[in-house]
Amino acid sequence: MAVSVPLVFNAPRRGMPPTHLADLDSEGRRAAVQELGLPGFRADQLARQYYGRLEADADKMTDLPASVREKVGEALFPTLLTPVKHVACDDGTTRKTLWKANDGTLLESVLMRYPDRATLCISSQAGCGMACPFCATGQAGLTRNLSTAEIVDQVRSAAAAMRDGEMAGVSADGRSAGSAPGRLSNVVFMGMGEPLANYKRVVDAVRKITAPAPDGLGLSQRSVTVSTVGLAPAIRKLADEGLSVTLAVSLHTPDDELRDTLVPVNNRWSVAEVLDAAKYYADQTGRRVSIEYALIRDVNDQPWRADMLGKKLHKALGSRVHVNLIPLNPTPGSEWDASPKPVEREFVRRVIAQGVSCTVRDTRGQEIAAACGQLAAEN
Q: Where primarily located (predicted)?
């Protein structure tokens, strides 16, 4: 039986946080400092502190006159996110953070360090309105959209943690090599929320994550992944933004009958419509599309579904697609469970046999409730 889902994407139930420097473009920053009675050049100075030096505390901005730091801090650097707890696992190479926004809203991010990269999984909403039954966040419902600055500040904080050696280094064999400075290299919008349901702020945040200082944090667009459960019109809109980010589509099954239940938004945009939008994205950007597929025991792991998935993806996208098979991270009390390894291997084999690249995602953080929404639900 299909599950209905309210498709009111930009109607958060709580107010947005106060304006922060990371909400403003260069003109907005200049206007803001002039309103404070400061010369316009201070706008660039503040932006270089935040984006270049990763500093969010005006009291520590020593190139700013001490007499105006408090005023600047209150106006442009309100505390947006306060860490409630950090929980680490995988020998310290994975760290999940539970954040509290200034209105009490809880959200999560996960920083994962590998031998060749450091990836941050960030949230774009507090909660999620997509109601996917196997997802802890989806079952919690939507609290509100995050602001641009709340999204960007998750990335700034992680970049500072890497720079300051707060995360364990990783040796070539994947083991912890003790604390060591590093650099944040990748950002994935795969935390709490449906990114394309908070479209304007997510795109604004992507531009600020990837623009060079003093306008942004300077990560490569190709190192940013934006995920979606399949909001087809928004996928097409994103394709026309002139960005080079990776699109990840959480498909989870190739047939409409099951997807209507697993991903209720499918009742509005079918598998065929989602794949057609993904093809448009690939055509416009030249980027390969990632298909996310959480493999669930006896639900979507049948051999015939692997065959159907491979055939549909090859027909729609040819070689411009890759399947990320995700062993389900079970949530407490859930009826859903991960598929056995032999079933997983056969699924991969069958997808590849249809001419589609397919790999199993490295799973991390199961012992720290790293599935989206679990830590927030516990608190």
A: cytoplasm
CB distance 111 to 181 below 8 Å: no
123 in a labelled binding site: no
How many alpha carbons fall within 13 Å on the CB side of residue 331? 18
- Annotation marks residue 166 as catalytic: no
Mark 193-211 as b/e (b = at least 16 C-beta within 10 Å). Answer: bbbbbbbebbbbbbbbbbb
pTM of the complete model beyond 0.90: yes
Domain ranges of the chain: 21-76, 81-378
Domain 81-378, CATH 3.20.20.70 — does that match?
yes
Query: 332: cis peptide before it, omega within 30°?
Result: no
Class of domain 21-76: mainly alpha
- Spell out the residues 6+ positions from residue 242 whose beta carbon is closer than 8 angstroms to its own: none
**Choice among 55, 108, 150, 292 that is catalytic:** 108
Q: Is 335 in the active site? A: no
Q: Does the annotation place 250 within a ligand binding site?
A: yes
Of 121, 150, 358, 372, which residue is the catalytic one? 372
Does 334 appear as a known binding residue?
no
227 is in an annotated binding site: yes
